[in-house]
Design goal:
The complex is a heterodimer of chains A (298) and B (232).
Chain A: H1 3-17, E1 21-25, H2 34-39, E2 44-46, H3 51-63, E3 67-72, H4 74-79, H5 82-91, E4 96-101, H6 119-124, E5 130-132, H7 137-147, E6 153-158, E7 173-176, E8 182-186, H8 190-196, E9 203-207, E10 209-211, H9 215-225, E11 229-237, H10 242-248, E12 255-261, H11 273-279, H12 284-294
Parallel strand pairs in A: 1-2, 1-3, 3-4, 4-6, 5-6, 8-9, 8-11, 11-12
Antiparallel strand pairs in A: 5-10, 7-9
Helix pairs in contact in A: 1-7, 3-5, 8-12, 9-10
Chain B: H1 13-19, H2 27-44, E1 59-62, H3 69-77, H4 118-131, E2 139-144, H5 151-162, E3 168-174, H6 186-191, E4 196-201, H7 205-213, E5 221-226
Parallel strand pairs in B: 1-2, 2-3, 3-5, 4-5
Helix pairs in contact in B: 1-3, 2-3, 2-7, 4-5
The chains are: A alpha/beta (298), B alpha/beta (232).
């Protein structure tokens, strides 16, 4: 079961368990939650293809004490109603859990309109958001369940790409220790980073939560490695977390290489996800080459 | 209901508005809403400064956040604000800005200023109240006729109509300031989406009161409050 199905089946259960939770949809995934809507007609709300109302309605729900979970593709969840995200949630002091599925290019045959590599950077430009980028469906479910009892603004970015196994637990995790530098893999990037760095003497960190950013673990890893060379591998816009790395290491002279989706041009290509991995140099071989070029020899 | 706690009435509003001095850029917008606001707070809304967070209270959403002088004046007259606070408005030490902020001002339900947000927020509030079994509280959203230019409103108008939101009222203060106008009239835009509508003189308190309190079962209500054209 992928992250999207895991999310939807979890929401079915949550709606039965927690009367405070309401799901707000804009047609996407509405058919999957139709049985839940029949059981809870007041708490499964499909606004139709109205993405500004999608966020506005969520803000209104929160202002009456409900916990809205809002779901659609990231282009339509974050980019189209961006001012609603800024004003109808954060500026009102209203919480919500925004759950996207589709990542940067999980629907490659749909083209640029369905690519949203800037979603995390955009959310990051509004104060106070927690941002989760799970690397496995089990992680997606536990992050969702942890987010629901609260009142804050949470962005949960689900993807069709995932790692082979989940890594439970909070914060940044040390997956491997090494001596030539630190590679931070975010969410679904971990398995390919581990494969790319298989023969390299590097520390590999894993993060499924990028905001708040676990600066303490990064600093400790850099100190433990002894070489302040950091490579950031994110499944969205390259450098989205670069400012967080700079801030974490402000006292340490360091070098940073930020990998992610290209900022240079729109990728006007269909094909497979793997074609887009290649176009953005996020495939295993490209990551290996980038590590080799950046990290200093022993 | 009469809930004036400080003994201030409609006749005091001009003096309260005058207390807000400075570089007011939205005075026309402020004047257009004063009668609607007064009738709502004096005779229609179940709200009280003693219980501003009562889950069963009515909600008033000033979507058209521009020109909140009349709004602050009414809130002061009704005891949500100390009238002495009005004098410092829009200063760096004041809670009262050119656009109201719900996190700063007692009795203010939404932070507004950017046009086209209040209606969807109001629709979400009705969904939230319904889901908690609170079917009595009214949600009243005030917009301007030019504000309806924002497409976001039309998403909310259609949604509220289809969801049979009898708890929702939109009052459109029409000072004929929309750049391209609304052929057929504003009320018609709501009526085709299933709303009950009333178009009244926005200066006539009894007509406004009657419009706000006429039963409209299973439908949201749109009250178009016509005032003199902007700049006239």
């Amino acid at each position: 079961m992928g992250m999207r199905d895991a999310f939807l089946s979890t929401m079915e259960q949550v709606l039965d368990e927690d009367p405070r939770v309401a799901v707000v949809l804009a047609d996407i995934s509405a058919a999957s939650l139709e049985a839940a809507r029949r059981r809870h007609p007041d708490r499964v709300i499909n606004v139709g293809i109205r993405e500004q109302a999608l966020i506005g309605v969520a803000g209104g729900l929160a202002l009456t004490g409900m916990r809205p979970v809002v779901h659609t593709f990231p282009s339509f969840l974050v980019e189209r109603p961006y001012e609603q995200v800024k004003l109808d949630l954060t500026h009102q002091g209203a919480g919500a859990v925004l759950v996207s599925w589709g990542g940067s290019y999980d629907m490659p045959t749909a083209g640029r309109t369905h690519q949203s590599p800037a979603d995390v950077a955009l959310i990051d430009a509004i104060p106070g958001w927690t941002v989760h980028v799970p690397g496995h469906p089990d992680e997606a479910v536990s992050l969702l369940r942890e987010a629901l009892p609260g009142d804050g603004t949470v962005y949960l970015r689900l993807s069709g790409q995932s790692n082979a196994r989940p890594r439970p637990g909070p914060g940044m995790q040390v997956v491997r220790q090494g001596g030539r530098g630190v590679v931070l893999a975010v969410g679904p990037m971990l398995d390919r980073v581990l494969a790319a760095a298989e023969d390299m003497d590097v520390t590999v960190l894993y993060a499924k939560t990028v905001r708040p950013f676990d600066a303490e673990t990064l600093r400790a890893a850099v100190a433990g490695t002894g070489v302040a060379d950091v490579v950031l591998v994110e499944p969205y816009l390259a450098g989205t977390s670069a400012h967080q790395v700079s801030e974490a290491l402000v006292e340490v002279p360091h070098r940073l290489r930020a990998l992610g989706t290209s900022r240079d041009a729109e990728v006007r290509r269909y094909g497979e996800v793997t074609d887009h991995d290649l176009a953005h140099a996020l495939d295993e071989a490209s990551i290996a080459a980038a590590l080799k070029a950046f990290l200093r020899p022993d | 209901m009469e809930n004036t706690t400080r003994g201030l009435g409609y006749a005091d509003l001009p003096a309260l508005i005058d207390a807000m001095r400075g570089d007011e850029k939205h005075s026309g917008a402020a004047e257009s809403t004063v009668d609607v606001l007064w009738v709502l707070y004096d005779r229609v809304l179940n709200v009280s400064p003693e219980a501003p967070d009562d889950p069963a209270r009515d909600r008033f959403l000033l979507s058209k956040g521009h020109g909140p002088m009349a709004y602050y004046a009414v809130l002061a007259a009704k005891g949500f604000l100390d009238p002495a606070e009005l004098a410092g408005w829009a200063g760096s030490e004041s809670r009262l800005g050119y656009h109201p902020d719900r996190t700063l001002v007692p009795g203010v339900e939404i932070s507004s200023g950017s046009l086209g947000h209040g209606l969807a927020l109001g629709v979400g509030m009705v969904f939230g109240l319904r889901a908690q079994g609170l079917t009595e509280p009214k949600v009243v959203v005030l917009t301007g006729d030019a504000e309806l230019d924002e497409g976001s409103n039309h998403e909310a108008i259609a949604l509220a109509g289809r969801a049979s939101m009898a708890q929702l009222t939109t009052v459109v203060v029409d000072n004929q300031s929309a750049t391209h106008g609304w052929p057929g009239g504003i009320a018609e835009r709501f009526a085709v989406e299933g709303w009950a509508t009333r178009t009244v003189d926005g200066r006539d308190h009894d007509a406004l009161h009657a419009a706000f309190t006429t039963p409209h079962p299973d439908r949201p209500l749109c009250v178009v409050a016509v005032v003199e054209p902007k700049g006239s």
